[in-house]
């Protein structure tokens, strides 16, 4: 089953489901939490299945899209505190028109909660003070986002919230909404409350007019770091989301190595694929305290399921995404081959990485046929506080972890998702799981 994607800010899925079948990722707007002591902030997303970046992903639809439909309000259970333990998951199937099916990420911040979604063409936004009652943010008003914008990142700073947006095309709108322009493609917006937003010139990430690179945004103790990885990685830092400072190219990891970043309590961790010779790549990680000076590369080794390091003549491999929890990280990527093999690595500090060839706790896919066993039997998501591994079907399960090594299996009740449901979004009060057509909400139960 393959799902056509119209919206671009795409963070992929780590799972293979069924005998040799794959699913395309949900369109996701990357949301980044502000760094908290002891907490590694991570996009609430799924990692990408693309092993090594051979071309840049497209951030926009291939043709002009219609204006976004007006999102509606919705209600969810009040979420537990960020550090509260989850003891069980209760599943319920959502109606096709339920606005909750559009949500792709939720940021918990000091002013409440803000959710960013995808309706296929745009990124609707909702705000909530208690995490239960959600109000849709209107677009194209004097103090909100213009239509035609894709929100590619959201983060908290001392003054409130910061969003990064890309212009996705041309719309017939008021003078307050400029048409597509290379100079306005990437913008930053600031808000004290999540409801009223002010536009600013965005960071200079070296994006040419026809660039297909999707910027990433991370928040750490030093402020914000925005990165666009293409043939050359470009980055910029900011403490408030208004004034941006370009990071000199010579100080960034070279060889197209930095492709995905998260903020941590001590700085930033990034992973990618480092060119070692010709068209050969190796998965590596880098770290920075301030977003400008970087240490590394730290290798992410390639091993077989038996734990034997493969020969140096092995195909290229790289890391494409990070899932973060309070006490650890899992990097995901793959081997550039046909069929490709998905790869996981775990680290407590972002420097020392151990391979996870059997994708614990999910294990490899157990079917027979081409592609089986070459990826995890489920999907993995994280929000900086916890990681959740999950799958649907007859052997449905949900596991939670704070470090990516020790996992607790949670009892599941209710309407169990299908075995093809491997597209997941982690929320403060539970998790969304979809097979591309049907979406289930798993409400987290507390002690």
What's the SSE blueprint?
Blueprint: E1 74-75, E2 88-93, E3 103-109, E4 112-117, E5 125-128, E6 133-136, E7 149-157, E8 160-167, E9 186-191, E10 198-201, E11 216-220, E12 223-229, E13 233-238, E14 245-246, E15 260-263, E16 268-277, E17 280-288, E18 294-299, E19 317-325, E20 328-335, E21 342-347, E22 354-355, E23 379-382, E24 387-391, E25 397-401, E26 408-410, E27 412-414, E28 423-427, E29 430-434, E30 439-445
Parallel strand pairs: 2-27
Antiparallel strand pairs: 1-6, 2-30, 3-4, 4-5, 5-6, 7-8, 8-9, 9-10, 11-12, 12-13, 13-14, 15-16, 16-17, 17-18, 19-20, 20-21, 21-22, 23-24, 24-25, 25-26, 28-29, 29-30
Plain-language structure description:
The protein is mostly beta strands. The chain has a single domain, classed as 7 Propeller (Methylamine Dehydrogenase, Chain H), CATH 2.130.10. Helix content is 0%, strand content 37%. A five-stranded antiparallel β-sheet has the order 1-6-5-4-3, with no helix packed on it. The protein has a five-stranded mixed β-sheet with strand order 27-2-30-29-28, with no helix packed on it. A four-stranded antiparallel β-sheet has the order 7-8-9-10, with no helix packed on it. It is globular. The relative contact order is 0.19.
Structural class: mainly beta
Order of helices and strands: EEEEEEEEEEEEEEEEEEEEEEEEEEEEEE
Largest sheet: 5 strands, antiparallel
Shape call: globular
Taking Cα atoms only, what radius of gyration do you get, to the nearest Å?
20 Å
- For the record, the count of structural domains works out to 1
Oligomer: single chain
CATH topology-level name: Methylamine Dehydrogenase, Chain H
| Strand-residue proportion | 35-45%
Strands ordered across the widest β-sheet: 1-6-5-4-3
**CA(first)-CA(last) distance:** 38 Å
Any guess at the CATH architecture? Answer: 7 Propeller
* Individual helix count: 0
Q: Please, what is the CATH homologous superfamily?
A: YVTN repeat-like/Quinoprotein amine dehydrogenase
Low-confidence stretches: 1-69, 170-180
Please report the total strand number as a whole number.
30
Would you tell me the overall average pLDDT? 79
